[in-house]
Amino acid sequence: MNDCLFCKIVKGEIPSKKIYEDESVYVFEDIAPTAPVHYLVIPKEHISKLDEVNASNSAVIAHIYEVIAQLAREKGLDDGFRVVSNCGESAGQSVFHIHFHLLAGRPLTWPAG
Question: Whole-angstrom Cα distance, residue 43 to residue 65?
């Protein structure tokens, strides 16, 4: 996707504050954080939204959750954290490259939004 913001971040065309990277996942700080810890966890492969996950690309989603668990341990998020992924405009998705918000560092209320 030539015009995808997150694809450009992965390629290094747009700067980001990288937290973690491996062969299939990139993690960076959100530019408008809503919690003291607010990372975006994305697959390097372009998948527009959650309803496009299928048998051919679901392994990267499982790996994303492994990365989130690893980051939570490394960053000492022992008090808890939240993972959020919005699917579609009505749910609040504004960048159409699947991504997971890792939020922590303050009490997180429920219900969300």
Answer: 11
Longest dimension (CA), the chain: 39
Band (4; pLDDT cuts 50, 70, 90)? very high
The residues annotated as belonging to the active site are 99
Q: What is the pLDDT of residues 37-60, one digit of tens each?
A: 999 999 999 999 999 999 999 999
DSSP sequence for 13-75: SS---EEEE-SSEEEEE-SS-SSSEEEEEEESS---SGGG--TTTHHHHHHHHHHHHHHHHHT
pTM of the model: 0.95
Q: Which residues pair with 102 in a beta bridge?
A: 39, 83
Distance CA 3, CA 109 (A): 35
Q: What is the DSSP string of 1-21?
A: -TT-HHHHHHHTSS---EEEE
